[in-house]
Amino acid sequence: MTRKAVFVAAIAAAFLSSTAAYAQCGGASWYGPGFNGKRAASGEIFNENAMTAAHRSLPFGTKVMVTDQRTGNAIEVTINDRGPFHGGRIIDLSKAAATKLGFRNRGTTSVCLSQL
Three-class SS of residue 12? Predict the structure, then answer.
């Protein structure tokens, strides 16, 4: 790697570590019907119309910025459930969050997450 590339990588790493304690990219899907009104893993009652999401390991209550890699649209959600339990996906968004992000009709999309 050239000296300039190493310098740019170091600056990027410093910027990312100071602005986000967590970053991850991968697949996203959504859920709601069939789960609405039932208990989420956090103990909360799941509301498909709330801006919430399921993640395998982030603590409940964590606020996450979800950015659609295809469109650049971004939303804020709160982690209140566990999942997704489908290979290649890193987050399951509520119906409302998927609608606001603009991928509900497609069912899945590619996203990047950053902890707020």
Answer: helix
CA distances to 48, 51, 60, 96 from 107, rounded to whole Å, are 15, 17, 24, 13
Q: Is residue 73 part of a domain?
A: yes
Is the pLDDT confidence value at 8 over 80?
Answer: no
* SS3 state at 34: strand
Query: What is the reported pLDDT for 6?
Result: 41
Residues in the chain: 116
Residues 96 and 3: their CA atoms lie apart, in Å, by 46
DSSP string, 67-107: EETTT--EEEEEEEE----STTEEEEEEHHHHHHHT-TTTS
Average pLDDT over residues 57-79: 97
Residue 75 lies in a domain: yes
Residues spanned by the domain of 79? 21-115
**Is this prediction's pTM over 0.90?**
no
- Asked if residue 106 is part of any domain, the answer here is yes
